[in-house]
Amino acid sequence: MPKVRKIPQRTCVACGRARPKRELVRAVRTPAGEIKVDLTGKVSGRGAYVCPEPECVERGLREGRLQHALEIPIPESAMDELRRAVELAAAGRR
After folding, report:
1. CB 21 within 8 A of CB 8
2. Tens of pLDDT along the chain (94 residues)?
3. pTM of the entire predicted model
4. Domains and CATH numbers, the chain
5. Left, alpha or beta for 45 (phi > 0: left; psi -120 to 50: alpha)?
6. Residue 4: partners with Cβ closer than 8 Å, 6 or more residues away
């Protein structure tokens, strides 16, 4: 009988929907204080997950949910990087 592996679940900070970790985009605050988009899920630091849909990213940024989860103000350059990463992830799913 094959062993069934558990799929890690994470919650989107914008909409609150739980999804498999691989389906979400992770924003991370590194120990140096930078905000980066982590597509591998392995970058060291405090992370927050968001659905790969533009509506969720905009809601998370507009309502301050990503900023609250990362515990640091998010610079405009990091916001743009996150938007681009979500566009790429959404294009890859089509």
Report:
1. yes
2. 788 999 999 999 999 999 999 999 999 999 999 999 998 889 999 999 999 999 999 999 999 999 999 999 999 999 999 999 988 877 776 5
3. 0.89
4. 9-93 (3.30.1230.10)
5. left
6. none
